[in-house]
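Section 5.1 Outputs to date
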Amino acid sequence: MNDDLYEDPIRQRLREHLEAMLIRADKAASWREETGRLRGLVNHDGFVPIRTRLSTEDLDFLADARDDLLTFTELGLRLLDLHQPRDAGGITSDHAHPILRCRSCMWRWPCPTFRAFSDSFGPPPALPESA
């Protein structure tokens, strides 16, 4: 067996699932612009009585969006738990800024996995200042 051609079946299924999520999300219409207008229509019961035209792609996406997002978020959190900095233990002249390596992959920090997350999601929002 040639190791260069081996594909882990679990990794392949995960990739196929993520690609299917991407395709469904790409085909579904964005509700971003509509939410601003819909907020003004909230009735006294806390609901928006709406009528809209939804495509089958919209319905497919909306049916699984919450569960997919929860699963994807859990995956992201697990990857971030794996890829976090640790002191590399080397000799440095700047003790305030030690050389760091990733706990999981041992690349110099920030590792490629963390950089991919950071690039995809942008900088984290600022924490609210405590009063």
